[in-house]
């Protein structure tokens, strides 16, 4: 992998192991910082949930679960633009066209700023209405509103940090994002109790303090990351004489919208289905909502290998597609699927064996919510391993610019199968039965995606 100093000297990446190195080890070492970053983010969320659930109560924990699904929905709206930029940068670098990669950085940065400000304004206005629509329990509503008001202030910085990290991964650098994500997580974890309980000179803010800690951590990490990249003269930085690149280039903007919009819609489909599911869960009361929040915290650890591998194979295959090395693309797909079964399967097995102990980290050990959470995990853990297969294969397909079929598969799996099935099972057989909708929907997504990978025309797609 090229170094920062080499990039500064030669103005282009050299010795790019993503397109020349051994595939198994290259994928592993590229994916590991992404995976560790996902672990850190989930650990951060888990520690924050422990502070909130254990010391502020189950209503506060349910509030963060409801609020976080809204945040995920809003982040989804710009996810596609980031993915499209990552693929364009990867293909450009694979083709050794650094100038084009910089054009992508300039256009996508401006577009990200505009979108983040617009989404922040929309979210600030409509959050109370969304919480009502989600059937948020009355006793949970004040906590959720306090939490969300602070979180919305930090959206531009959260979006900005995520954007810079995706650009770096698209260029073949997965280590630097990890280091600054590590900084953000440590800051968030350290500040949480200070603002929640009002320790020392810090004000006592309750659940709002948890949100403020997250915002401060994101701001500090983003600012320091940008300073670091410029001091190290990273080869994709926009220099003073290149400020003209900070504009909406029509060709690149068209690709970002045409390819990014379906990928963003795919994430919106995922997040909106999560809102619909929480809407159903909330009708069963605060205990069920809290149990679902704790179970989802644990399931996020199973999804982390899948998400890391999906992001890694997408970056790696994009560069290999740019270099026209299709044999490496297919071998990367196979190795990615194998890694998913090994990593996600182990995590799912550990959670299954220590089900009660894991849930008790977030829930009172003698309350009814923990029993509900055990039943949720028993029915959903294995399904998230299937989710990983879908993430890897779909990540490879999207790296060519083929984005519509993965969108249609996701929509069918979640809105045609999971949500209707969950509502039907809940109505006919009760709360515990609705969770069988998870293996049904993930199983369908895996089968159809693998068929499209084997026989579809995804290899003919183009980003521009």
From TrEMBL:
It comes from the Bacteria. Keywords: Cell membrane, Membrane, Transmembrane, Transmembrane helix, Transport. The keyword Transmembrane helix applies. Pfam families: MatE. Signal peptide: none annotated. GO terms for cellular component: plasma membrane. GO terms for molecular function: antiporter activity; xenobiotic transmembrane transporter activity. It is found in: Cell membrane. CDD domains: MATE_yoeA_like (cd13138). This is MATE family efflux transporter.
């Amino acid at each position: 992998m090229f170094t920062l100093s080499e990039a500064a000297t030669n103005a282009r990446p050299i010795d790019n192991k993503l397109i020349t190195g051994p595939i198994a080890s290259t994928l592993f070492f590229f994916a590991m910082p992404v995976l560790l970053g996902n672990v850190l983010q989930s650990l951060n969320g888990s520690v924050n949930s422990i502070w909130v659930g254990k010391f502020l109560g189950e209503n506060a924990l349910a509030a963060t679960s409801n609020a976080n699904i809204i945040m995920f929905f809003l982040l989804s709206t710009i996810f596609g633009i980031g993915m499209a930029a990552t693929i364009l940068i990867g293909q450009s670098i694979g083709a050794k066209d650094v100038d084009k990669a910089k054009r992508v950085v300039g256009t996508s940065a401006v577009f990200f700023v505009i979108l983040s400000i617009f989404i922040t304004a929309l979210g600030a206005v409509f959050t109370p209405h969304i919480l009502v629509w989600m059937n948020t329990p009355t006793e949970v509503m004040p906590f959720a509103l306090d939490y969300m008001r602070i979180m919305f202030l930090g959206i531009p910085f959260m979006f900005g940090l995520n954007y810079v990290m995706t650009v770096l991964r698209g260029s073949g650098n997965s280590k630097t994002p990890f280091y600054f994500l590590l900084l953000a997580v440590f800051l968030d974890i350290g500040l949480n109790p200070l603002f929640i309980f009002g320790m020392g000179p810090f004000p006592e803010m309750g659940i709002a303090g948890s949100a403020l800690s997250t915002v401060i951590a994101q701001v500090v990490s983003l600012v320091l990351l940008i300073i670091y990249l410029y001091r190290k003269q990273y080869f994709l930085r926009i220099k003073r004489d290149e400020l003209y690149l900070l504009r909406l280039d029509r060709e690149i903007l068209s690709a970002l919208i045409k390819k990014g919009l379906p990928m963003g819609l795919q994430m919106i489909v995922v997040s909106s289905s999560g809102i619909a599911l929480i809407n159903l869960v909330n009708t069963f009361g605060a205990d069920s909502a809290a149990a679902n929040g704790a179970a989802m915290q644990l399931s996020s650890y199973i999804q982390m290998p899948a998400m890391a591998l999906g992001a890694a194979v997408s970056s790696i295959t994009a560069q290999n597609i740019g270099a026209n090395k299709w044999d490496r693309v297919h071998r990367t797909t196979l190795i990615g699927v194998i890694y998913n079964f090994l990593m996600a399967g182990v995590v799912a097995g550990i959670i299954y064996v220590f089900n009660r102990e894991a849930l008790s980290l977030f829930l009172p050990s003698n309350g009814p919510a923990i029993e509900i959470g055990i039943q949720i995990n028993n029915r959903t853990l294995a399904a998230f391993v299937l989710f990983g297969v879908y993430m890897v294969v779909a990540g490879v397909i999207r790296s060519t610019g083929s984005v519509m079929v993965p969108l249609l598969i996701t929509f069918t799996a979640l809105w045609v199968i999971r949500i209707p099935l969950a509502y039907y099972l809940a109505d006919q057989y009760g709360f515990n039965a609705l969770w069988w909708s998870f293996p049904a929907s993930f199983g369908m997504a895996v089968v159809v995606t693998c068929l499209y990978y084997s026989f579809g025309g995804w290899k003919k797609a183009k980003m521009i």
